[in-house]
Amino acid sequence: MSAPAPAIVITTGEPAGIGPDICIALATKPLPGRPIFLANKALIEQRAGALDVDLTIETLPSPAAAVAHADGVMQLIDVPLATEVEAGKLDRANARYVLELLGRGTALCTSQDASALVTAPVHKSVIDAAGVPFTGHTEFLAELTGTPQPVMLLVSDTLRVALVTTHLPLAEVPKHIDATRLERVITVLHDDLETRFGIERPCIRVLGLNPHAGENGVLGREEIDVIAPTIERLRARGLTLLGPTPADTAFTGEALAGVDAVLAMYHDQGLPVIKAAAFGEVVNVTLGLPIIRTSVDHGTALELAATGRARADSLAKAYELAFQLANAAQ
């Protein structure tokens, strides 16, 4: 008897944003596997009505009750809100609801009741305003799962970009580029490209931190003191690494030939390139976790909530990749 199709948990994110909208749109599409949405049922009913979407909501008594997806049916685990939601208007009272979605989704995956987690966007500021320090999904999920070194990877159809540092002020970045962190990030990236993406001997191009990769120390010494020695040490262990490469030429066709992933030193060094090339179809994957987690490449877009103008393309891509990775892991 064959194993059941993977169950994929989808958190609906910030309730005042477009998370509920794009999850409703996703539920109307043909989907592989057994999608399980985590959301407040009344909110989804209200938002589906505002969007004039014909949606059937089936409340699950347990994750095991999830069945193969049917277009227009949302299989949902009902999670209570703290207060009523007004589309487009943040309310810190519901910050704990957002974190509850993430906590439940993670728990379902770590208990193996589900095979992967897909997350709709959250709004960092409202969570912080509620008194919960929160810099992003990547860091929060790492803490929940006890992961020492999570790695953010953005994936499009033609490019993969990973980050050494994620949500840090730019002035803080250099002090976080040290040999220990860099080695851990490269190792996680290399290992997950092999084990999760099935790439044999992945080739990773590592960017420099400074303009022109420091230009022999004239524009900064991080390449000489940290990045290049770490690359050489890992090459000696058999990893295929290129660099440190100046960021301004690393994304040319010639530089990307044969490269499986580019490793950027900080958030806005690598992400603008992949988002400019494929925004709305990029998937955010958190590597290094004991679970599979994917997400969208955009924010909560409060101004689009309940208007019918939000696109679900990135969420659909995130679901598709989560299913592929979960299916391959079975």
Provide a short characterization of the protein structure.
This protein is an alpha/beta fold and 330 residues long. It has helices at 19-27, 41-51, 95-110, 124-129, 137-145, 173-176, 179-195, 222-235, 253-256, 267-278, 313-329; strands spanning 7-11, 34-39, 56-59, 73-78, 116-119, 151-155, 160-163, 203-207, 240-245, 261-264, 283-287, 293-295.
Describe the protein.
The chain is an alpha/beta fold and 330 residues long. It has 2 domains: 189 residues, 3-Layer(aba) Sandwich (Isopropylmalate Dehydrogenase), CATH 3.40.718.10; 131 residues, Isopropylmalate Dehydrogenase (3-Layer(aba) Sandwich). Helices cover 36% and strands 17% of the residues. Strands 3-4-2-1-5-12-11-6-7-10-8-9 form a 12-stranded mixed β-sheet, sandwiched between helices. The chain starts with 6 loop residues before the first strand and ends with a helix. The model has no long low-confidence stretch (mean pLDDT 96).
For the structure shown, list the relevant keywords.
twelve-stranded mixed sheet; Isopropylmalate Dehydrogenase; alpha/beta; about 325 residues; 12 strands
How many domain modules? 2
CATH superfamily of the largest domain: Isopropylmalate Dehydrogenase
Strand count, sense and closure of the main sheet?
12 strands, mixed
Average pLDDT taken over every residue: 96
CATH class descriptor name of the largest domain: Alpha Beta
Distance between the termini: 14 Å
Low-confidence stretches: none
Topology-level CATH name of the largest domain: Isopropylmalate Dehydrogenase
Shape: globular
- Structural class computed from helices and strand pairing: alpha/beta
Strand and helix order: EHEHEEHEHHEEHHEHEHEHEEH
Strand content: 15-25%
Please count the helical segments.
11
Strand order of the largest sheet: 3-4-2-1-5-12-11-6-7-10-8-9
CATH architectural label of the largest domain: 3-Layer(aba) Sandwich
What is the CA-based Rg, rounded?
20 Å
Q: Into which percent range does the helicity of residues fall?
A: 25-40%
